[in-house]
Amino acid sequence: MSDPAGRITDSFNAQGLMTTLGAKLTRIEDGEVSIALAPRPEISQQHGYIHAGALTSILDTACGYAALTVAPVDADVLTVEFKANFLRPALGDAVVAVGKVVKAGKTITVCSGELFASREGREELIAIMQATIANIAPRAHRE
Amino acid sequence: MSDPAGRITDSFNAQGLMTTLGAKLTRIEDGEVSIALAPRPEISQQHGYIHAGALTSILDTACGYAALTVAPVDADVLTVEFKANFLRPALGDAVVAVGKVVKAGKTITVCSGELFASREGREELIAIMQATIANIAPRAHRE
Amino acid sequence: MSDPAGRITDSFNAQGLMTTLGAKLTRIEDGEVSIALAPRPEISQQHGYIHAGALTSILDTACGYAALTVAPVDADVLTVEFKANFLRPALGDAVVAVGKVVKAGKTITVCSGELFASREGREELIAIMQATIANIAPRAHRE
Amino acid sequence: MSDPAGRITDSFNAQGLMTTLGAKLTRIEDGEVSIALAPRPEISQQHGYIHAGALTSILDTACGYAALTVAPVDADVLTVEFKANFLRPALGDAVVAVGKVVKAGKTITVCSGELFASREGREELIAIMQATIANIAPRAHRE
What we know:
Four copies of one chain form a homotetramer. Chain A is of the alpha+beta class. In chain A, 27% of the residues lie in helices and 42% in strands. Chain A has four helices and six strands; from the N terminus they run H-H-E-E-H-E-E-E-E-H. Chain A has a six-stranded antiparallel beta sheet with strand order 1-2-4-5-6-3. The interface between A and C is small, with 9 and 9 residues.
């Protein structure tokens, strides 16, 4: 397939969890993808902040699609593992997860993710991720 | 507070994300907490499996509450960081995340998490987590 | 090659760092490898305990060789990434790193590592690792 | 103590492992510390490259001292955990680990590390780390 942005948008829209969380795909560039999320009680932890699991979900998804922008044509991607540090509570009007390719490989791509909250006109770094993504054969070739 | 199970149940019920995902708190023991989740399109990734972010959400929550069972009375817990490896797609009727305390400390507790899927009567290990949890002063004392 | 233990021993002996640290390969089983290390000023951090980097070196090596015991014949292994938590200072007469395969795959194997110190006749868990290892074609086939 | 650079240099010189590896403390700035290492057979893995454990040792040490530059006066630091991804073999004349503070806290500081190799006049990114460092009371106050 030769339209990575269209392919990523279709794939994102097929992710039930992204719809359930209320996440929006806001930017697709070569090696970089952003996903935004607004706080709601439905995605909170016990103190009302956005749950670390919801933050991780959009960080992971942003990293995976960033890897897909540099993957071989028709390859699919799969998260092998990730690690996230949570630096501050996610206060503010919205958060944005930015996934970036650090090193693209034939079978494995390493990405970094940063999650920012915008509050009163300034951005704060809320969480950081380091993720390992595998390129896999497209599903049609595997089944 | 002297009823850790009641306190954890109340806290779990106050987590909007757990309700949204459909997660159930299934076991609270000293140093160990389990949370179950059934697959639904609303929590899926693009191929229909449970999203890694949803799996991570219940692993993180199980680890956090496992840490809370051994925390000083009235302390609250906060996830400092975690790392998860995804071993297999989460196939089956349901998954269970089990969080266990590896080392309890005065300010930091380290937990491990395992996520199992039950399929056709047997359990498969789907994901593993290593998490660092901080004990923090209860909110009333911080604000 | 059909002698995994011999192959691992030869490879271990070719690792200059293992000799420099004074590490000993103490056990090779299917899916599990142990490496021992005794404290010495030459491998210490600033307070005299064994340096976290030396502990990580034997944990990583134990995990890598554990993965090699289950890798395709003639494949070589490469550490993609690892994460380690340090639970207690490494006090005692000696430490042992135990690497175990959690999930063996065609291209990626996930291992867990545990590092124990023996002190006054009992064992203490000092550090834990979660590692991702890649199977790669043997060098002769790559060059 | 009011001379962080002097304090870090003294502490570095007291680390037996750094001397054994041949590591050099090359830069101390507010929130950032660099450590260099040259390849030698004594610190190699089985194919002659610098061992991932040696790379991790200088990354961890650079992150720990970066955290120390922003820690409360007289506090000491301790590595809680780290995660490293290895992107390429460490080829070249020398490698440099750069540890940087991402978020300094009262009890916990999060750092990122990057390891570069210089080869034929250009720098390559070899490994990346995400590390959690705890501030602890100075030893005199603990014992």
